[in-house]
Write a structure and sequence with these properties.
Number of helices of chain B: 0
Radius of gyration of chain B: 13 Å
Distance between the termini of chain B: 39 Å
Shape of chain B: globular
Oligomer: heterodimer
Order of helices and strands of chain A: EEEEEEEEEEE
Number of strands of chain A: 11
Structural class of chain B: mainly beta
Helix content of chain A: under 10%
Strand content of chain A: over 45%
Distance between the termini of chain A: 32 Å
Helix content of chain B: under 10%
Strand content of chain B: over 45%
Shape of chain A: globular
Number of helices of chain A: 0
Largest sheet of chain A: 7 strands, mixed
Structural class of chain A: mainly beta
Number of strands of chain B: 11
Chain lengths: ~110, ~110
């Protein structure tokens, strides 16, 4: 089983709909992140959380909200989806107490907004 | 955010060495990373280097870090078709990670 699991893996929706992307992890990491990937733009940070009571905006938080329901769960919501939110979304976790402190990524959620 | 730059495309012949380059702007980065993304998959860590190191070797992978020029490179020896993927460099500055645009490596049989 994957250490970082994202659902759904693919979603097609219409403009104006509310969408939630969910992420759960079994790594026991406190730090969780949501990134967006667009071709030619790399990964851009949407929101991040360092524990259940800590939520921080990233570079491109407008139009998005998040909820950290538990240490293992971090969900991303699009309150009213628009076409330019069509992208590949990644959840990631990290543990800065380990050497390297790298990000561990989920498999991604591909969202298409029509 | 910080600027991390990579060229978008690289093609090499099978068996040759690949060198993927990355430049970054923040000299206070603590770690620098190379990730590999295969089609339809998430990013997987290939290797990382601590910012006070110049070189790190791991089997076919060699990472070179030039702190003066803020330049990071990844060399893949004996490149195979299975190495075809997008490669991202990233730096960690404080609590944040900054990613390059990714380099799409195509290995020609």
């Amino acid at each position: 089983d994957a250490d970082v699991t994202q659902t759904p893996r693919n979603r097609i929706t219409k403009t104006g709909k509310r969408i939630m992307l969910e992420c759960s992890q079994t790594k026991g990491h406190d730090r969780m992140y949501w990134y967006r990937q667009d071709p030619g733009l790399g990964l851009r940070l949407i929101y991040y959380s360092f524990d259940v009571k800590d939520i921080n905006k990233g570079e491109i938080s407008d139009g998005y909200s998040v909820s950290r329901q538990a240490q293992a769960k971090f969900s991303l919501s699009l309150e009213s989806a628009i076409p330019n939110q069509t992208a590949l979304y990644f959840c990631a976790t990290s543990d800065f107490d380990r050497a390297g402190g790298e990000l561990f990524f989920g498999e991604g959620s591909r969202l298409t907004v029509l | 955010g910080e600027d991390v730059e990579q060229s978008l495309f690289l093609s090499v012949r099978e068996g040759d060495s690949s060198v993927i380059n990355c430049t970054y702007t923040d000299s206070s980065s603590t770690y620098l990373y190379w990730y590999k993304q295969e089609p339809g998959a998430g990013l997987q860590l290939l290797t990382y280097i601590f910012s006070n190191m110049d070189m790190k070797q791991d089997q076919r992978l060699t990472v070179l870090l030039n702190k003066k020029d803020k330049h990071l490179s990844l060399r893949i020896a004996d490149t195979q078709t299975g190495d075809s993927a997008i490669y991202f460099c990233a730096e960690r500055v404080g609590n944040q990670f900054y990613f390059g645009t990714g380099t799409s490596l195509t290995v020609i049989p």
